[in-house]
Amino acid sequence: MTHFPLLRSLSKHLVLLLAGVSIFTAAWSQDKPAPLLLKDALQHALQNKSTAVKARLDEENSQNIIDEAKSRALPQVNANGNLTYNPILQLSAVPGELAGQPGTTLLIPFGQKWNSGASVSLSQTVLDKSVFTALKAAKTTKEYYKILSGLTDEQVIEQVATQYYQVLVQRQQLVVVDSNLASTTRLISIIEGQYKNGLAKKIDLDRTKVSLSNIQAQRQRLINAVQLQENMLKFYMGMPIETAIHIPATQLDSIKPQLASIDPVPDIRKLTDYKALKKKEELLELQKEANKAANYPSLSLSGNYGYQGLGQSFPIGKSGGNGANWFDYATVGLSLKVPLFNGFATRSKVRQSNIEIQKAREDLKDAELSLNLTYQNAKTQLQNSIITLHNQEENVALAEEVYSNSMNNYHQGLAPLTDLLDAESSLTSAQNNYSAALLDYRIAEIQLIKAQGNLKTLLN
């Protein structure tokens, strides 16, 4: 029995320990954000960036525009009611002959003190070319906003993808600096030991320390640059700036330079930029038709039914006596409007529309040239960036070999420290140039994918 309190105490401490481990694990997992892959960044941006959200709202609102256009072709029904009190009735002059008083003029009040009524009216467009043109224009507007939404998505994808790889390259450069910092620190330790044993000069130690200080300053600048680039990436993603993100460095290893992506020649007329301008031209054509519709006759049907009460007292109650006199009425009409002359206003509007259509066609011609230029330049840039990337890769391998040989020669006393520091500086420059070439290649590839109209493939 004496073991039970001890057992309970151990159990209690075990439970507290497990709870503490769980809390620590949860806190650690919260502090360390999940790896942010490119496709994750793009999907987040498309869902949260304000420009993409607004484009989807415009696309959604286009259905409301269609519904508004449809309303003009549907019956219009209105209900009306009124109540009027006339404290002083207007007098009308009537010849006395009507009342057997020739040669006199009688002033007789007409109307009732109280007048009330309620009615329902209906109107229906039977024939109006402008109504049906507006309906076609509304449907085309919906298609236009859908294209614009796709164009906005492509712009967001381009911005986020470009910024994403800029962050990657900055981080890669930071890795290079950290490696140089570690190697220089080890070198200082070696030289300090040699200096204490009289095998190295103080100037060699000082030079190495200066080199270390320069590397530390460069590292701090890169840390600041990485932070700024990450903040810009969050902005393009529509993410709160204070949110922590983690971009895995292994993403750089996925960059495999290849010329295969150059082969698909784009059909300019299928690109989103061109389709948006083409749809704008269609809208201008419909605007022209709407202006011309002002010259066409229009026909509409109308109907009205009402109930009215008149009396000397408040119009509530039975007809006759002191009550109100109630009666109903109804009308049905057909209205035809034939435009004859409006001072050439319609002709002027049609001519303005023709000018706008011509300008839109010129925009299409210019867009076709611009999109072809973009594709050709992107293809050339990609080809050149691949050549540069291969050259820089070979340059890094050579610089690493030179640095290794310089390190061995320095340890064996066959080369001065300046040769080693120069080799280290050359290696750092080669590595940074390789990182820059990686970024140039990736940006060129993104531009080529954009020119081919395949930016959304980056989401896969």
From TrEMBL:
Pfam families membership: OEP
Signal peptide residue numbers: 1-29
InterPro entries: OMP_efflux, TolC-like
Keyword Electron transport: no
Keywords: Cell outer membrane, Coiled coil, Membrane, Signal, Transmembrane, Transmembrane beta strand, Transport
GO molecular function: efflux transmembrane transporter activity; porin activity
Cellular component GO terms held in the UniProt record: cell outer membrane; efflux pump complex
TM helices/strands, residue ranges: none
Entry's family note: Belongs to the outer membrane factor (OMF) (TC 1.B.17) family.
UniProt name for this protein: Transporter
Gene source species: Flavihumibacter solisilvae
UniProt lineage: Bacteria, Pseudomonadati, Bacteroidota, Chitinophagia, Chitinophagales
